[in-house]
Amino acid sequence: MASKFLSTSALFLLIAFSLFLGTSCNQKNSTTPTQSATTSDSSLSKKYSLEKIKLPEGFSINVFAEVPNARSMCLGRNGTLFVGTMSGNVYAVVDTDNNGVAEKVDTIASGLDTPNGVAFKDGSLYVAEHRRIIRFDNIENNLEKHPNYAVVYDKFPDDRNHGWKFIAFGPDGKLYVPVGAPCNICNPDSPYASITRMNPDGTGFEIFAKGIRNTVGFTWHPQTKQIWFTDNGRDNLGDDIPSDELNTAPQKGMHFGYPFCHEGDILDPEFGKGKNCSDYTPPALKLGAHVAALGLRFYTGNMFPSEYQNRIFIAQHGSWNRTTPIGYRVMSVRVENNKAVEYTPFATGWLDEKGKALGRPVDVQVAPDGALLVSDDKQGVIYRITYHK
Q: Is the pLDDT of residue 31 over 70?
C-alpha cells in the first residue's frame, strides 16, 4: 500500500511541476490577455460568466458589488465607492471589512435625471444630472439617510442627445463637466461639444476645450497634471471610420476638430468643406471606430507590477451599430514623455465568439488597495481586478 501511495504522489507532483513550468513561461507576455479569470465566489462567477474574461498572467477578477446600471464611479475620503447611473439612482458601495467584496450597497438618491457623473471633494459628493450639478454635503456620514442636496449649477442645455455627463475635479480644484454635441454631426454653438469647468460652488463657469463631440471620461496625469480624455467619433461614415480618440490638453483653449475634422486626418463630408485638419489638435491615440471609449484612469496603485504604473486604463462600452461588434473590453495605454506609445488589451471576453455582448464596461477606478474596479451597466455589476505574484 505504501509503494502504491508513493507512486501516486510522485505522479501528482510531476503533473503539478509541469503545470508550474508552463505558467512560468507565459509570464513574458504580461500585457496580453491569456489567462481565464477566477473569482472567490463561484455562484457570482457563474452568474456573470467571469470564467470567460481574459486577463494578463497573474491577474484575477471577482464581483465587488452588484449595482444596477452601474456607470461612473468615484471614491470618498473614507473609501466609499459612489456610483452614478442613467436610471435615476446614485449608490454608495462599502466594503466594511476590506476583503474585496462589498457588504453594503446603499441608495443615497433616487428619481434624479440621468445622474451619470459623480465626483468627490472636501467631504461632499457632486452629482451630474442632465441639466445641473447637485451636491450632497458630509455624505459619508449620511449614507443611509437619503440626505438633502444643494444645487451647484443648473444652466446646462436641455438637449437629451449626449446630455449625460461624466464629472471630475482637476488638480486646479475646479470641477470639469463636458457638454456633448446635441446630435450625431452638426455645428452647434457654445457650450456644446466642449469640456467646461467651474469652481466648486458653481461660479467661474468657462469653456476649457472645444471641438469634442462627446467625452464620457477624463483624468489627469499624476506627474504632469495634464488632462487626458476620450472622445466618441461620429456615426454613419461606415464601420471603420472615424476612430474614437484619446486626447490630451496641456492648456486651455484647444480645439480638437469636431465637427470639421475627425481622428485628426479625416475631413467631415459636410462640415469639413474648406477646412484643414492641421488647424486642429490631433488625437494622442486612435482607439478604433465605434469602440465607445468611456471612463479612463491612470494607474497609481501599488498592487500591479511596476510596468503598469502610470498606464491609462480605458473602459470601452462597445459598438451599437457596427456590422461586426467591437469594444466591450478594458484597454491599456502606456504613456512616455507625454505621448501614447503602446495600446494593448487588458481585460477581454465580454464579447463572445458569436458577437453577443455579455457585459459593457463603462468606467474604471483605482481602489485604495491598488485593485482596479470596473463598472458594467449591462450586467449591473462592479468587478474587482487584482494581481497576485
A: no
